[in-house]
């Protein structure tokens, strides 16, 4: 069994946090145009790619066993 890594070491979590910040900026009055659609498709593709290369579980507590 793989040892879990800390949440802050997860590329998937960081990718989604960046997407969240981008979504918040768009929702705060900037002109989204087609950026909302483009960013949604891009985020989905990046999440699939990261899922394919993921081989370690993530834990909120790095010392915790999964």
DSSP, total strands: 2
Helicity, as a percent range: 40-55%
| pLDDT averaged over residues | 77
Query: Which regions contain 5 or more consecutive residues with pLDDT less than 50?
Result: none
| Beta-strand fraction estimate | 5-15%
CA radius of gyration: 15 Å
Describe the main β-sheet briefly. Answer: 2 strands, parallel
Q: Strand order of the main beta sheet, please? A: 1-2
- Class inferred from helices and paired strands: mainly alpha
- The quaternary organization reads as single chain
Number of helices: 2
Order of SSEs, N→C?
EHHE
Span from first to last CA?
9 Å
Assign an overall shape: elongated
List the helices and strands and how they pair.
Elements: E1 5-6, H1 11-27, H2 35-53, E2 58-59
Parallel strand pairs: 1-2
Please tell me about this protein's structure.
This protein has helices at 11-27, 35-53; strands spanning 5-6, 58-59. By secondary structure, the chain is mainly alpha-helical. The chain has a domain at 11-54. A two-stranded parallel ribbon has the order 1-2. Helix 1 (11-27) packs antiparallel against helix 2 (35-53). The longest helix has 19 residues, at 35-53.
Can I get a quick summary?
The chain has helices at 11-27, 35-53, and strands spanning 5-6, 58-59. The chain has 66 residues and is mostly helical.
